Amino acid sequence: MYAPQILIEAALNGLMTGAVYALIALGLTLVYGVLHIINFAHGALLTVAMFAVWGAFALVHVDPYWAMVGIVPLMFGLGYGLQRFVIGPASHGNDNNVLLVTLGLSIVLENGLLALFRSDTRALDSDAALQVIELGPLLLSTPRVIGFAASLAVTGLLWLVLNRTDTGRAIRAVAREKLGARLVGIEVDHVYAVTFGIGCACLAVAACLLMPTYYVNPRSGAAFVLVAFTIVVLGGMGSIAGALVGGLIIGVVESFSGLLLGDSLGQIGIFLIFILVLLVRPTGLFGARA
């Protein structure tokens, strides 16, 4: 039997990790909610962002958190350009083609990273991962605390953008009724590109929060996106609130699974949750029936 302190620390660490997972899932669920497609390039784009954070630190010694200032707009621009000038034109308005294009884009990005960086694993040469915050008898990882706070802040900011700005209203209009939005003068292709760009910007923030404690190689993003897919299904496809709540739940489940079964088997609990949700509530916690 584990001491209460260990269980509390496991729960808190799970919540903090889950918040960053939720940030990765936000981009995935936002793209699905507006474009109504699954972005198979999501993991590869996360890997690109993680390599950008590593490069900024290794080459010019920019702290990963300060790197957000440059990498977030860079990834937004990359996402906007890919959707506007590659994915959109190549798909010819067919959702099935979009899936194939994003899958092809994922393969191109991963192999491009493999050609540039080989298969070597890289990490930041920093002591940040060892820093802790003492909360009474509890010891919490400083990078995870920062990641938790930043993830909640970004989620709140995204909610404000979607609900309190003209761009957000345009995004919601296109998500609800594309043809109607086009008829009232909304440039749908631009909204699609902005949405894809916002999804990539969320990945950039997540990469900056992950890199102090994680490593990167050309396949790193794939593991995180498998978890993100589970979060999206658990929270409900297209739901921002669902992505946040689902991420927190999955983080706690993973933490306790790792505590009980060992780190190598920690993700078993995640995929058991995935199967149960598909069996019991396929629409997710916050999803609506079609």
TrEMBL record:
GO molecular function: transmembrane transporter activity
Transmembrane domains' residue ranges: 12-34, 40-60, 65-86, 98-117, 138-162, 191-211, 223-253, 259-280
Compartments, as annotated in UniProt: Cell membrane
Pfam families named among the record's database cross-references: BPD_transp_2
InterPro entries: ABC_transp_permease (IPR001851), BCAA_transport_permease (IPR052157)
Main location: membrane
Source superkingdom: Bacteria
GO biological process: amino acid transport
Membrane topology: Multi-pass membrane protein
Name the UniProt record assigns to this protein: Branched-chain amino acid ABC transporter/permease
